[in-house]
Amino acid sequence: MTKPPIGGNRTGRKLGQKVKKGKLKASSRRWIERHINDPYVQRAQLEGYRARAAFKLLEIDEKHKILSGAKRIIDLGAAPGSWSQIAAKVTNSTDSDPKVVAIDFLELDPLAGVHILQLDFLDPTAPEKLMTALGGTPDLVLSDMAAPTTGHRQTDHIRTMHLCEVAAYFAIDVLGEGGHFLAKTFQGGAERELLTLLKQNFKQVIHVKPAASRAESVEMFLLAKGFKGRKPGAASLYDSGTEIDDREVADERDSVEAE
């Protein structure tokens, strides 16, 4: 069972550490202090995960069982790779028979059992390359993509929702019947059309916020469970002429752990 750290940590590191002022800006110093004192960060280091984001996925799965039985998984916006680590483990993926494909336009250090594509997901060639690399139908599409924050909440939400929408169309295009889709989003408006799309194509659509997602963060996750199957003649983002190669929208750096 995945439980949040309670009453300290198991790393031996003391919580409440301070960072010397030096030449750091006050905001940078506060961020570093929060990061090094975060029990999820310390637990990730102890358990060998590349980022604290691993526990967001594990906590969501503990309740909703989206990893159970998954044979092939696609991880969008994968850097630095903690979700792919989990995906490779649950699918028994190996380098000789990879069942997990990860994509990010940042360079990603190699992961056992994970086929990595260093490519912007908004590149028009990305969907085909992902499916070719996977070599079969995915049971689960994960997306931890988010646009770089501007400080303006509504702008950040709209930009991230664009990524979420593109990921949703991709999932609908490629998932096998009964498959699941999980994507990061931000709290706010401008998502009615996306929710309608998902409800039309999945048996259950819910918002989730795992304990590992910081309480003060506007981060949420959209979970669509039980794909109903591709409808004959249904519109596809990739054959509709919609322009998706928008270079102003980029993955949030999971390695920075802004959330």
UniProtKB/TrEMBL annotation:
Keywords: Cytoplasm, Methyltransferase, rRNA processing, S-adenosyl-L-methionine, Transferase
S-adenosyl-L-methionine listed as a keyword: yes
Domain Ribosomal RNA methyltransferase FtsJ: 49-227
Mitochondrion is among the record's keywords: no
Cellular compartments annotated: Cytoplasm
Annotated Basic and acidic residues bias: 250-259
Enzymatic reactions: uridine(2552) in 23S rRNA + S-adenosyl-L-methionine = 2'-O-methyluridine(2552) in 23S rRNA + S-adenosyl-L-homocysteine + H(+)
Domain of life the protein comes from: Bacteria
UniProt-annotated stretches for the region Disordered: 230-259
Binding site for S-adenosyl-L-methionine: 81, 83, 104, 120, 144
One Pfam family this sequence matches: FtsJ
Signal sequence segment: none
Major subcellular location class: cytoplasm
Molecular-function annotations in GO: rRNA (uridine-2'-O-)-methyltransferase activity
Active site per the UniProt annotation: 184 (proton acceptor)
Function description: Specifically methylates the uridine in position 2552 of 23S rRNA at the 2'-O position of the ribose in the fully assembled 50S ribosomal subunit.
HAMAP family to which the protein is assigned, alphabetical: RNA_methyltr_E (MF_01547)
Family: Belongs to the class I-like SAM-binding methyltransferase superfamily. RNA methyltransferase RlmE family.
Protein name: Ribosomal RNA large subunit methyltransferase E
The organism of origin for this protein: Pararhizobium polonicum
